[in-house]
Structure formats: C-alpha cells, structure tokens
Design a protein that fits this description.
It is a single chain. Helix 3 runs antiparallel to helix 9 (256-265) and helix 5 packs antiparallel against helix 6 (162-188). It is built from nine helices and no strands. Helix content is 75%, strand content 0%. The chain is mainly α and 267 residues long. The chain folds into two domains: 3-67 and 192-243, no CATH class; 71-190 and 253-265, Four Helix Bundle (Hemerythrin (Met), subunit A) (Up-down Bundle). The protein starts with a helix and ends with a helix.
Length: 267
C-alpha cells in the first residue's frame, strides 16, 4: 500500500469519525449536553489535541532529519566512488577492469533505485554476457555481488613497485569506506514508523474528529471546516510517511549525486 493510499484511508476514517459524532448527537439526552459535560469533553479534547500535535510535530521533524541524513550519506557514497576511481586511475592500466565494474555498479544502482527516471547515458550497464563472465548478477539483488567482484579484482592486483603497493593499499582502504557508507545508506533507507504506533496515532485523531462532530453547529460552513481539517491532517500524515521512505514517493532523494559520480568515473 502506498503512502497516498494510507493518507486517503486516514482521511476517510476521520470524516467517518466526524459523521459518527454528528449522527450520535441528536440521540444524546439533555444531561449529556449539559455545560459541565461539554466543558469536560473540551478539556479532554484539548489535552488529546495537544498530544497529537506534539507527536505529529516530532514525527515530521524526525523523518525530515532522517531524510536529510540519507541525502548526505548518498553524497558520501558518491564521493567514495569518485575517490576510489581516482586511485584506480592512478594505479594504471591494470585497474581498467575494476574501473569498468565500478562504473557498471554505479549505473546499475541508479537504474534499479530510481526506476522512473531515465537510465544514465553511455555503455556503463552490465550486459548478460559480461555479467556471466564476471560471475555477477545484473538484478537489483545482485548489486552486492558486483561490489564483491570489485573487491576481488582490487585484491587481485599485482603491484610491481612500492608506489603501486601504496596505491593498492589506498584502494583497499577506500573500498572499505565505500562499503561502510553503502551499508549505512541501506539501513537508513528503510521506514522507521511502526504500524502499531501509526494505528494509535490514527485512533487519537479519530476520537478528536468524532468530538468535532459532536460539537459542530449544523451548517455548511462547519462541515467544510471539518473536511478541510481532515484533509490537512491527512496531508501531514502523507508527508510524514513519504519522507520516511526516502527512495520512493513524491519526496524522494535525488539521484543527481550518483549521476555526477558516474560522469566522473567515465572520464
């Protein structure tokens, strides 16, 4: 289920909650409509609205910070790719195969992650023939195999002099930094909002909107205000859920850092 569908379902539930309050109100006895009862309901709803507002605010801040962290980590991965390729270029012709695999990995990562965007221009993509000869998979799940092959090729280099030995050690260190940044990015790309927590928050919001239905005057302006309020809350929840999945949806991390890295790798 997409984030937009989740927000739409929440919108419908909130409106049904308000409608339930409006339907129940005529059946309440006079003692349930007394001033003391109304004041108590308003006091409890004020407390609940405050809690819900705090939670929504904290969630928005948290997922935005997480989204920014993923953006920064993606730039870090791009920088690590460029630095590794630069060291391999300095190593010389013996590292050409490794550089080609690194370009193929970068292009495959862009294509598999941002499936709705155009594929990178150039012949960077691994074909079925070259993948079979290298012992790797061209599927998205095989991107880790591509990097494993890169590591194997790097460690298989045979330096002939002290300068190349130092460059080889530099390449190995940079590859390890690249793998660390990659796994960090993978772990941060998963959603962090738990389903039980989301259900509890939705329950709070339904109670709030049911109370709106209980106390709302019977006129068109009141109905429009409740609908706009429910639409606003649903849009906030949509933004939170969408930011919580940084590689999909409307608010997605840009592929530009990796595309710029691929341009550098192709030089």
């Amino acid at each position: 289920m997409t984030e937009l569908e989740d927000a739409a379902i929440l919108l419908v539930i909130l409106l049904f909650g308000s409608a339930f309050g409006m339907v129940v109100r005529p059946f309440l006895s006079e003692r349930h409509r007394s001033r003391e009862t109304t004041d108590l309901i308003q006091l409890v709803m004020t407390m609940l609205v405050t809690f819900a507002a705090l939670v929504l605010g904290l969630l928005t801040s948290s997922v935005k910070a997480s989204f920014d962290t993923v953006e920064n980590d993606l730039r870090s991965v791009s920088i690590q790719l460029i630095q590794l390729d630069r060291s391999l270029r300095q190593y010389g012709g013996g590292a050409d195969r490794v550089r080609a695999l690194l370009r193929s990995y970068t292009a495959a990562r862009i294509t598999s992650t941002w499936i709705d965007e155009p594929r990178p221009l150039g012949d960077y993509h691994v074909t079925a023939t070259t993948a079979a000869s290298a012992g790797i998979s061209v599927a998205a799940s095989g991107l880790g195999d591509m990097l494993a092959q890169v590591e194997t090729e790097i460690r298989g280099l045979d330096p002939q002099d002290p300068m190349h030995r130092r460059l080889l050690q530099t390449c190995i260190n940079q590859f390890e930094l690249l793998m660390h940044a990659r796994w960090k990015l993978i772990e941060e790309g998963h959603g962090s909002i738990s389903v039980p927590f989301y259900i509890v928050l939705a329950f709070w919001l339904v109670i709030i909107f049911a109370s709106f239905g209980l106390s709302a005057p019977n006129n068109v302006l009141s109905y429009i205000t409740i609908i706009l309020g429910a639409l606003s809350i649903a849009s906030v929840v949509f933004v939170i859920l969408d930011l919580d999945t940084p590689f999909t949806g409307v608010f997605a991390v840009s592929s530009q850092p990796l595309r710029e890295a691929l341009t550098q790798l192709s030089r």
